[in-house]
Automatic annotation (TrEMBL):
Gene Ontology molecular function terms on file: mannosyltransferase activity
Database matches in Gene3D superfamilies: Tetratricopeptide repeat domain
InterPro entries: TPR-like_helical_dom_sf, TPR_rpt
Keywords in alphabetical order: TPR repeat
Protein name: Uncharacterized protein
The keyword Phosphoprotein belongs to this UniProt entry's keyword annotation: no
Per-repeat ranges for TPR: 13-46, 47-80, 118-151
GO terms of biological process kind: protein O-linked glycosylation via mannose
Organism encoding this protein: Mytilus galloprovincialis
Listed SMART domains: TPR
PANTHER family: PROTEIN O-MANNOSYL-TRANSFERASE TMTC3 (PTHR44395:SF1), PTHR44395
Amino acid sequence: MLQTAVSMRPDYVQGYINRGDIMVKLGRMKEAIVIYKTALKYEPDNADVYYNLGVVSLELKDPDAARVYFETALQHDPDHWQSLYNSAIMIQEHGNANDWPELEKRLQHLEKKNPTDPKIYFTMGMLDMDRKDYISAEKYIKKCLQYEPTFRSALFNLALMLVNNLNKPLEALPYLNTLLQNYPDHTKGMMLLGDINVNVQKDLISADKHFKRVVELEPDNIQANHNLCVVMVEKDRERLNNWSVDRKLTKFSFCLGYIHLFLIINEVNLHFHWAFKEINQKPKCTALLLGNQISFSSAFNEKYVLQN
């Protein structure tokens, strides 16, 4: 039907846009590009078409072309919200400090146009994290959560920042609890909560529960396996100090099994030396030491949406 309408009236731009959208939904991205570009022959200043070309370019893993299309859309319509927002995301993800003033300008523009959109404040918070202005980042991410209390990335990154950068680990607890209530398989959240259990609250029972859950979901998670062994030993610390080496080896058979696994996949971390230190024996081989630390989650996981 759309093809008939276009054939009857070749300058029917909305028909091309609709056909291009259908091609995108069918996964026929290259055909969509041809159709959108045909629409531009009749309306070369159509910001929606340039935006859609940018989205398709992202799907084709061509971010440079996508950014050019978003910028072209903004040249024709400086208030084109989707192009403004997605170009801001691309600037933030690129991580070039020279682009931060332009990113801030775009985010402020977006805020004026839609002051209740949580994604804007989250992106502002991530920008301030990049600039190491953690006080301001905390303010913006909390504002994001005012508008969307279950925003997954906001909950985790705020909790992580409170622990690692603002030295307020107990204030991270309600955000982690909300995160895990809504996303019960968020392993990085469980790891962070387990670390607080061990290092701040000295709650080994809760830590054991969280690390075990991570291992259930990710059996090859090195840091979780290591932390689980540490918790197991700390729970028996008083008795362990009085045990013989042979008895310690029996107790540590669980941990040593993981050491063998880590050696096979060539990802041994400090766990190897830690375990043998607890047994009071020197390791018999050399291990590759890798420090595994929790890192900020990807800031943007949302799908780009076509503008109709």
